[in-house]
Design brief:
This protein has 107 residues and is mainly α. It is built from 6 helices and no strands. It has one domain: 434 Repressor (Amino-terminal Domain) (Orthogonal Bundle), CATH 1.10.260.40. The radius of gyration is 14 Å and the shape is globular.
């Protein structure tokens, strides 16, 4: 069953549990598909500033704007929700490994 954004509820729950990584993941997706913030702004109706704030973790990526941006990037990618979920899972693992490495280096 999909929510009002068309994204499966289990995917939303998975993203909510890893909220700190959603913005950087959206940025990675956008850049991987060679979409500028300006192009994304024009396609979604959100300002470049809003997109930047979401990507940099300064705005809630799980709000309406974050969902709309994700929907657009999902459509542009041509991937299924399961493929994106898998990519996001790998992204989170890599981010966690980098954070653990940074902590070890700082000690």
């Amino acid at each position: 069953m999909s929510d009002i954004y068309g994204i499966e509820n289990n995917l939303i729950q998975y993203f909510n549990e890893r909220k700190d990584y959603v913005g950087p993941f959206l940025q990675t997706m956008r850049m991987a598909y060679d979409i500028t913030q300006q192009e994304l702004s024009e396609a979604t109706g959100y300002s470049v500033q809003t997109i930047s704030r979401i990507e940099n973790g300064k705005a809630n990526p799980m709000g309406v704007a974050g969902h709309d941006i994700f929907e657009y990037l999902l459509k542009e990618s041509g991937n299924s929700e399961n493929e994106i979920l898998s990519e996001f899972s790998i992204f989170c693992s890599n981010m966690q490994a980098a954070e653990a490495y940074d902590e070890r280096i700082a000690q």
